Amino acid sequence: MKKFCLFLAAVMLVSLLAACGGTSAASSSEIAHVDGTLEELMEKVYEGIGEDEMPMVANTELTADNSVYYTGVESSEYKEGIASEAMISAVAHSVVLLRAEDEAAAETLKEEVKTNVDPRKWVCVEAEEVITDHIGDLVILIMSSKDLAPKLHENFLALAQ
User: Which residues, at least 6 apart from 147, have a Cβ–Cβ distance to it below 8 Å?
Assistant: First the structure.
């Protein structure tokens, strides 16, 4: 009887673990395109962040003239881009969203940005943390404080859900 009870408990435990495993949020390889304009997606990246946690920011459309400053790469490397930066240049804060041609191009673009971006572009200050990532064809570059950058990255990853 003890063996049967142990066996039954083990079966129940395995069943419970299997049920709790469920399906997780879609991985970036399951998403080819994140829907929405870059402005809408930028709003979602900042969603839930308190005003006291971040500097005042303004969005700038990326062009051939300003792309290298914001991303470290030429504008020909992506389809469209937007940067959200602190309005006071003495604050090291920048969030950039880039739309690549497809997921494979996004992975390459992410690595190029990571390699070429300058976290000291503000001259007087340097970003404490630099994060590059992508979901499908959407690439993000976050250069900010060590407290704010992970929160922004978490919001970005939530776009995959």
Answer: 53
